[in-house]
Design a protein that fits this description.
transmembrane helix, 176 residues, 7 helices
Length: 176
C-alpha cells in the first residue's frame, strides 16, 4: 500500500472526528476531539512529505489538550513560538507559511475562554488549511477542511445566530 493511500485513510479518520467535533456545545469536548483528529492529520501530512504541516499537527494534538486545562496567555504565546520554530526548521515554501498562519488562528481560538470566538478562529484557520490542502492536492484533506469549516459555521449558526430575539423596528411617525 502506498504512502499516499495510507495518508488518505488516516485523514479519513480525521474527517469523521472533525465532522462531529464542531457540533458539540462543550468547548472542552471540541478541543479533546480536535486533539485526536490532529494526531491522525499530522501522520497524514508526514506521509505526504510535508514536515511543517505534519509536525504542527502533531504538536497541535498536544496543544489542544493543554488548552483544555490552561488558558493562560503565556501558554498560547509559547505554543505559537513552538509552531514558529517548527515552521522555520522545516520550511519548504508557501505551504509552510500558509500552515503557520492557519495555526495562529487555531491557537488563538483554542486558548480563548469564549466559545463563539473559538468557532470564528476555527473557521478562519480551517479556511487556510483548505487552501493549503488544495495546493498540496490531498483529496481527503481538502474534504476534511471543507467539512470542518462547514461544520464550524453550522455550529456557530446553531448556537449563536438562531433563536436570537428579533428587535422590533422603531415606530415611524407620519407628518400630518
Amino acid at each position: 500500500m502506498s504512502d499516499f493511500l495510507i495518508s488518505q485513510i488516516l485523514v479519513t479518520i480525521t474527517l469523521i472526528i472533525e465532522f462531529f467535533a464542531m457540533q458539540l456545545k462543550n468547548k472542552n469536548y471540541i478541543l479533546a476531539a480536535l486533539s485526536v483528529s490532529c494526531f491522525f492529520n499530522g501522520i497524514h501530512y508526514l506521509l505526504l512529505d510535508q514536515p511543517t504541516a505534519g509536525l504542527i499537527f502533531l504538536f497541535s494534538s498536544i496543544r489542544f489538550l493543554v488548552s483544555i486545562k490552561w488558558k493562560f496567555q503565556w501558554v498560547s504565546i509559547a505554543s505559537l513560538c513552538i509552531s514558529l520554530v517548527i515552521t522555520i526548521t522545516t520550511y519548504i515554501g508557501l505551504l509552510s507559511i500558509i500552515g503557520f498562519v492557519a495555526t495562529v488562528f487555531v491557537t488563538v481560538g483554542s486558548f480563548s475562554h469564549n466559545d463563539k470566538f473559538l468557532r470564528l478562529m476555527m473557521i478562519a484557520g480551517g479556511t487556510l488549511w483548505f487552501v493549503h490542502n488544495l495546493i498540496l492536492w490531498t483529496p481527503v484533506g481538502i474534504l476534511v477542511e471543507a467539512i470542518f469549516v462547514s461544520s464550524s459555521f453550522i455550529g456557530y449558526y446553531r448556537y449563536y445566530l438562531t433563536n436570537k430575539p428579533i428587535k422590533p423596528l422603531p415606530p415611524t411617525y407620519k407628518d400630518n
